[in-house]
TrEMBL record:
<dbReference type="Pfam" id="PF03171">
    <property type="entry name" value="2OG-FeII_Oxy"/>
</dbReference>
<dbReference type="InterPro" id="IPR027443">
    <property type="entry name" value="IPNS-like_sf"/>
</dbReference>
<dbReference type="InterPro" id="IPR044861">
    <property type="entry name" value="IPNS-like_FE2OG_OXY"/>
</dbReference>
<protein>
    <recommendedName>
        <fullName>feruloyl-CoA 6-hydroxylase</fullName>
        <ecNumber>1.14.11.61</ecNumber>
    </recommendedName>
</protein>
<feature type="domain" description="Isopenicillin N synthase-like Fe(2+) 2OG dioxygenase">
    <location>
        <begin position="300"/>
        <end position="349"/>
    </location>
</feature>
<comment type="pathway">
    <text>Phenylpropanoid metabolism.</text>
</comment>
Length: 463
């Protein structure tokens, strides 16, 4: 179920700035061009579009991405005590149980305050210059996590600005200032540095845990040691296009904030874990190198409801992807469409991991939703689709409808989660419960792996 690939509409950062500037465009041709750009943005993010676009040429974003994303895997493979200390030092937390040896995702998170985005700009400029000029000490610091917090903040605030400006464009076409104002009123955005584990990563984590078990001791929870694996054999494996439908990195869902801003993922090929010694039993020095996406796409897969098709997302490697959430759908009265998506996991190579950084922009928790002008058919879309009969459809359409039915069977309809006058906080709780509660459609024990793309509060504990 890989689906066709789709290349995103590309909005340049210079056009984003020009469109949101408080200056009159004097040239008639330029004015028409900018009007066209705005219409393309709304068409792309609207009910007939894919619900996401790429922003290119964002100053500093490529540099910060290149230096931050490799730290994600290194953090994921640290032992719990060292990682806990390091995260605390950089004011980071996590929203997944990092002591779970079977986890397929590790996430490192913090709140990013809108009021602090300007005061951090000078620090970000200094960091960017350090890398651009080839400052070796800066790059060495990155390896040892010394700039983890700064890189996290710099990239996060950079992405927040993109989201705010895009909200401003949407507001111009929708009317009013609802989207941008709702973001500013929230006070914070949620930043997450995410490592999607390879099969080898799981084996490395278990191996390190086994080494911590005292020699000769037998406990009830002792981990069974996996058979010795020659990691070198995976280096030369090529990726086929077969994807794991049963164990994706992340299952189908909508984000329920306003916008989700994502870096294009970085892919790493890992080799044997050198550096696990008798003297340092619970430490692991990750050995990895960046590699292009084996398939040429991001492994982010979207479902286009109007076409009843899935598409793999392709985007320029150093662009930022902007994705619509359900709050934007509601606040825009259906003029924007939330993106139904998942993260696919290739079956091969076994040592391929996926690194990304995500910022979730959401309304204030006390923001209320009114349904008085919202299209009711959007509320009941899933309900209507679930009642469709496929027996008289042509074979090709039957297969498409089976796919649609399967996806919608695990994605709760908006009508089951939303009431008129409901606050964003109540809506987020209802959504989480419908997906992952005891009777939820995805209540399969993978809550902590699947929920991190949603706009939930960051856990206060680090482990």
């Amino acid at each position: 179920m890989a689906g066709d690939a789709t290349e995103l509409y590309e909005l340049t950062y210079s056009d984003l700035l020009l469109f949101t500037a408080n200056e009159v465009v004097e040239s008639a041709d330029e004015s028409q061009r900018m009007e066209y750009v705005g219409r393309m943005v709304m068409e792309t993010l609207g009910p007939n579009g894919p619900g996401l676009l790429a922003v290119t040429g964002v100053p500093g974003a490529a540099t910060f991405r290149r230096n931050l994303l490799p730290l994600s895997r290194k953090l994921a493979l640290l032992n719990n005590e060292d990682r806990k200390k390091l995260l605390k030092e950089h004011d980071l937390g996590s929203d997944v149980p990092l002591k779970n040896l079977e986890r397929v995702v590790s996430s490192f998170a913090k709140n990013l305050e809108y009021d602090k985005r300007f005061e951090s700009s000078s620090s970000c400029e200094r960091n960017q210059l350090g890398v651009v000029r080839g400052d070796e000490s800066f790059e060495a610091d990155c390896v040892f996590f010394k700039n983890l917090g700064d890189l996290f903040n710099c990239l996060g605030y950079c992405m927040m600005e993109v989201g705010l400006r895009l909200a401003q464009i949407c507001d111009k076409f929708i009317g009013g200032h609802e989207l941008q104002q709702s973001l500013l009123e929230s006070g914070t955005a949620k930043g997450r540095l995410i490592h999607y584990h390879s099969t080898i990563d799981t084996e490395i984590i278990k191996e390190a845990a086994n080494r911590r078990v005292k020699k000769g001791s037998k406990t009830k929870n002792q981990i069974k040691r996996n058979e010795k694996t020659d990691y070198k054999q995976f280096r030369s494996e090529t990726c086929d296009e077969e994807l794991s439908d049963s164990t994706p990195w992340q299952q189908w869902h909508h984000d329920y904030g306003v916008f989700t801003i994502l870096t294009v993922p970085m892919f790493l090929l890992s080799s044997n874990c050198k550096g696990v010694t008798e003297e340092s039993e619970d430490s692991c020095v990750p050995c990895d190198q960046e590699t292009p996406s084996p398939s040429g796409h991001t492994y982010l897969q979207i479902f286009h409801p109007n076409k009843d098709q899935t598409f793999m997302v392709k985007a320029p490697p150093e662009s930022l992807i902007v994705q619509v959430g359900e709050a934007a759908d509601l606040l825009s009265m259906g003029k924007l469409r939330a993106t139904l998506h998942r993260v696919c996991r290739p079956l091969k190579p076994n040592n391929l991991s996926r690194e990304t950084f995500v910022v979730f922009l959401q309304p204030a928790w006390n923001k209320t939703f009114s349904l008085s002008h919202y299209p009711l058919e959007h509320l009941h879309l899933n309900d209507q689709r679930s009642r469709l009969c496929t027996k008289d459809l042509p074979k090709g359409e039957k297969e498409s409808d089976k796919l649609s039915q399967m996806i919608r069977s695990i994605v709760p309809s908006l009508s089951s989660r939303l009431r008129d006058g409901m606050t964003f906080a109540d809506f987020s709780r209802a959504t989480t419960n419908q997906y992952y509660g005891s009777n939820g459609l995805q209540s399969n024990g993978q809550l902590n792996e699947l929920i991190l793309e949603l706009c939930i509060p960051i856990l206060s504990t680090l482990e």
